[in-house]
Amino acid sequence: MAQAASEIFTILLVDDREDNLIALQEILENENRQFIKALSGNEALKHILKNDNIGLIMLDVQMPGMDGFEVARLVKSNPKTKDISIIFVTAINKGEQYVLQGFSEGAVDYLQKPLEVSITRAKVKVFEQLYFYQQRLKQSIAEKEYINKQLERFVYIVSHDLKSPLASIITILSILERDQRITGQHDLCNSLEMLSQSSHHLSDMITALLEYSKKSSEEQVVEETDVAELVMTVTYLLFPPKNIQVEVVTELPVLITRKLKLMQVFQNLIGNAIKYNDKDKGLIQIGCTERENFYEFFVKDNGPGIAKKDEKKIFYLFEVTDNKAKNETSTGIGLNIMKMLVEEQGGKFWVESEEGKGSCFYFEWRK
After folding, report:
1. Which residues on neighbouring strands pair with residue 256, listed in sequence order?
2. pLDDT by residue (tens digit) across 266-321?
3. 225 & 213 share domain
4. CA–CA dist 331, 323 (Å, integer)
5. Domain with 67 in it
6. What is the value of pTM for the model shown?
7. In this structure, are residues 355 and 305 in contact, taking their beta carbons and an 8 Å threshold?
């Protein structure tokens, strides 16, 4: 079966003697490898600039004209080629100072002629594995950046579309608050005031979301965040019904962090705990344990719990489970986004649950 292009490891062999190039290729020959050969430093540089897939350079030190040290220096000075691994191949031994010069020019290893076949193969195999690890890491980073851009676009569109109807609600509430037929009704006035405050707070949150979606992760504001105050604000805006009690059971820290991201996580977890709770007396507990590099937060409820078969599924994008909230639908987006927010700054996100008795969601947030 033919190898996929991404699975081919390309090695550039550089030596001023054709017989050395042939011998080296014979030693390293493998079905998933392809070889490019160069008889001089200048020829090697031309190949390097034309080929984006070179994973390793086997470079002879002593060559007429441009020697191996100069080739390595030019390769490492070019941003496009600086990450290519270089192994120097030399027939001379001038001691430690000579070896150190090679490393200072960008070599990652040395091989002494005459070559030991088993050692040569083993070293090249290590660099081949490293190359593919790096390629997979680059692909993962690119995919993550793409997903983040799509999510930021989604947040911007949704937030922008919410502004207009919310502005209408705030206007209507403002008119009602000044209506003389209502001003004498104390309970109704209190309810209107609470709705007005909540609407303005929601408007501020949407404005913050719009700003967030316009900025990259590096540009987003890092600010002092009182987590206890944040949790209280989030809970207030979620309007938990009277049969559900939300309580903070441990001391919560003050962090220097991206406040909006942390708010998104708590808002999703507390909101889900309220929405899905099926008990006559619902209880949601929020707390924190301090670890070495992270704070480990938890949101625990006494709701329906999650079946074992669904505990991993709930974190997948667009996946939904059999758990249903009354008159509610699930998009399968929320927990996946929360997981990404936590993992992008090095933390973990997981759940412990017992069907019928409730769930406890944990997440780590860097100090």
Report:
1. 224
2. 988 998 899 889 999 999 999 999 999 999 999 999 999 888 777 666 765 444 44
3. no
4. 13
5. 5-115
6. 0.47
7. yes
